[in-house]
Amino acid sequence: MLAPDQVLTAAQMVSAEERLMAAGTDVHELMQRAGRGAAEYVWRMAANAPVTVLCGPGNNGGDGYVIAEAIRERGGPVQVVAAFEPGTDAAKRAASLYGGPVIAARDAQGSIFVDCLFGTGLARALSDDLTEMLCDLASRHDRSIAIDMPSGIESNSGALLAGRLPHYALCIALGAWKQAHFLMPAMASWDMARLVDIGADREEGGATAIGKPALSRPAPDAHKYRRGLVAVVGGSMPGAALLASKAAGHAGAGYVKLLSQHKIANAPADLVTMKAPGDVSFGKAAGDDRVSAILVGPGLGRDARASERLGQALSLDRPTVIDADGLTMLRKAMLKGRDSAAILTPHEGELATLEKLFGLDGSAAKPERARALARAANAVVIAKGPDTVIAAPDGRTAFAGKASSWLSVAGTGDVLAGVTASRLAVTGDAWRAANEGVWLHGEAARLSGAAFTAGELADTIRKALETCL
Q1: Right CATH number for 229-466 from 3.50.50.60, 3.40.630.30, 3.40.1190.20, 3.40.50.300?
Q2: What is the pTM of this model?
């Protein structure tokens, strides 16, 4: 089955190509599929303006020769800069089939620059000479396109392998998405990303890109409890819990209760708030058998009282989302004996704190860090940020696409926590809830436009959900 949403490591991509070849597709045909598919995007962007293709020694360079020949066949002005002689049999064959000019880098200029110097698999630092050539060529063209992966980026981690790199209008992934297509700082190197399918099946162990969820309207006989009841545990800072509750109410749950330590004077009329300051009243409210999911952390505080409420909430053994202060105060003992699912939503600082709690190294790339924490905590982890990675204890991994940078405002994490808790209450599936929550959060940011507040983002969750019906 074709898998356009899969996200692979460099090694997994090699395995996928080897399986295609074992099934009867030779490397030349794969290169033609990849190169000619990429040429479609280059052709559209060039609009018959001059194109320069920089070709390296490997198969990424071979893809470049295929792209150049495809453009030449259409009558487009194209030229190749050969940084090296082709070094693989497939690249040599592709170069021999190219019928256009090959020029020196110093003579190249035009409208579109296509980077086929190095693609997926580069792990060493890019030399100063090659970095200078790459940046100089890009500067002498109006726009740049990277094929598979910009040269100078490590495809598994997204790390930069050069002190400076061009900025690309477009990055064209070949065969499957790579992890770096969803990771910073790599992801900041281009404006758009597109995928060329070469016929690869789903690779075992591969991750996925989070896609638009297929949601449904409530059943004709639905009622508020059947749709899911979310209990939001309030604390010393009620604003964050109110914001999370608002988001949860817009994300599909039938009932949201805010369990507060004290009366909230400015609570909206359509939000049920319950003053549950003591252990008995709090335990009774949060332990209601009809509660489908608990959210604990936003605005909880970090004092002894907050720690007690966190521990009590987790001891109820209900599906739970732990966010913000809850992550900072979490202790391993609080998770012992739980059978119900848990979702952790750390940003970078909270991720590091949790790694210390569970004795994890924390030096690997973000996907490996998220997977390690998910295993150690036996919880689904949403490692959020400008690049968001979701990991499950069984090793499943999902990557979010590039989200609006306007999300970098206080309170948007509370909104994500509320949306995720709502989806957990609706679905009862932590992995699905995490994926749906992240997608809805990103879509709401897109729909909100520029300079929105967290409250405005929470209000727009409803519109994001409507797009999935």
Answers
A1: 3.40.1190.20
A2: 0.95
